Amino acid sequence: MPTLYETLVFLHILTAVVWVGGAVAMQLLAVRAQRSGDAAAMARTAGDVEWVGMRVFMPSSAILLVVGIWAVIEGPWEFSQGWISAGFVVWFLSFFAGMGFLGPESGRVKALIGERGPESPEVAARLSRIFLVSRIELVLLVAIIFVMVAKPGL
């Protein structure tokens, strides 16, 4: 039987896979929609990303945080270790990007599509900005996975 610590690490890794793997998939769909030149496809993709973000990414990132903290408490680690601190920083950056920009801006774009249609240049510009911010966030998430694996300073 796995120990509590092993179970927590498994859950931490699983939720990271769901969150980051899902974000990679969403980025691929966004690139595909952007390259198609089809404004309606881009709007649908943005709606799908919003749906997945609220129902998959948000819960998985919350579970990742809780089980990660619990794993540190149960395991041989300390919160003062740099790679753990880096994980918290990236998690909070992602949280604030989602709550402070990505979520609200997605809602505003959805309303704008209803008013002006998916072909509106303003809609296209705002969707491009949303996908740029989410790509930057994804780079940070991939970087923190490397840091978690390499554990620099140990």
Structural overview:
The chain has 154 residues and is an all-alpha fold. It has one domain. Helices cover 87% and strands 0% of the residues. Helix 1 packs antiparallel against helix 2 and helix 1 runs antiparallel to helix 4. It is elongated.
Write the layout of secondary structure elements.
Elements: H1 4-36, H2 39-74, H3 82-116, H4 121-150
Helix pairs in contact: 1-2, 1-4, 2-3, 3-4
Summarize the entry for a quick read.
Helix content is 87%, strand content 0%. The protein has four helices and no strands.
Write out key terms for the chains shown.
single chain, 154 residues, mainly alpha, elongated
Elements, N to C (H/E): HHHH
Question: In the residues, how many domains can be counted?
Answer: 1
What does the radius of gyration come to? 18 Å
End-to-end gap: 28 Å
Number of strands: 0
Q: Beta-sheet strand percentage?
A: under 5%
Which blocks of ≥5 consecutive residues have pLDDT under 50?
none
Structural class: mainly alpha
| Largest beta-sheet characterization | none
Number of helices: 4
- Shape descriptor reads elongated
The helix content is over 70%
Average of pLDDT: 92
